Amino acid sequence: LAGLPVAVGAPTTDDLVHARVDQSTGLVEHEADRLARCLLALGEVDTSDPAGRSLDLRDDECAEAAALLEPISAASGFLAVAASAKVAAKDWGAANWMDLIGRLGETHGDLALVMIGGAGEQARAQAALAIWPGPVLDLSGRANPRVSAAVMARARLFLGTDGGPMHLA
Q: What is the pLDDT of residues 135-153, one digit of tens each?
């Protein structure tokens, strides 16, 4: 640990590395609870309190999200999708995403489809938008993470890989 006298947040014991199992129910603790235990030296964290998960989005971030969503404002709602992953092992594959989006379009085509992600994810986003029967919007590379969070807060549903947008959602 580079000579640091105290490591806060690093899981330095087996108990902090592994999720606890409730012996009476067999349920495994949530990852957020395990991580909160790693940070206990900084104080108690109530992971069941939704206020503790708030990003405290600013008014300007919410306004920017609303402006970006203006082209689909007539839709009855939208699905937000982040269909790419920076880590190859977490990438579900373009074919799987196109199949899922095609199926969702059959039953939820009245909703708009909004693609979320970085600028390098535009090719997959464009492929998904091309098969969606309803209104579409590509925000790939157009919104910073906090504005993307404000966009996703307005979505009816978020679908994505295990990555940044999923954690924000």
A: 999 999 999 999 999 999 9
Give residue 129's identity as a one-letter amino acid code. Answer: L
Q: What is the pTM of this model?
A: 0.78
- Among 36, 152, 159, 146, smallest CA distance to 108 is for 159
Token representation of residue 53: 């998960």
Q: Are the beta carbons of 82 and 118 closer than 8 angstroms?
A: no
Question: Which stretches of 5-155 are DSSP H helices?
Answer: 14-17, 31-38, 59-69, 94-108, 122-131, 145-153
By the 10 Å C-beta count (0-12 exposed, 13-18 middle, 19+ buried), 112 is classed as buried
Strand, coil or helix: 167: helix
8-state DSSP, 41? G
Query: In angstroms, rounded to a whole number, what is the distance separating the alpha carbons of residues 128 and 99?
Result: 9
- Would you give the DSSP letter of residue 21? B
* Whether 85 contacts 162, CB under 8 Å: yes
Question: How far is residue 140's CA from residue 17's CA, in Å, rounded to a whole number?
Answer: 35
Between helix 59-69 and helix 145-153 the angle, nearest 10°, is 70
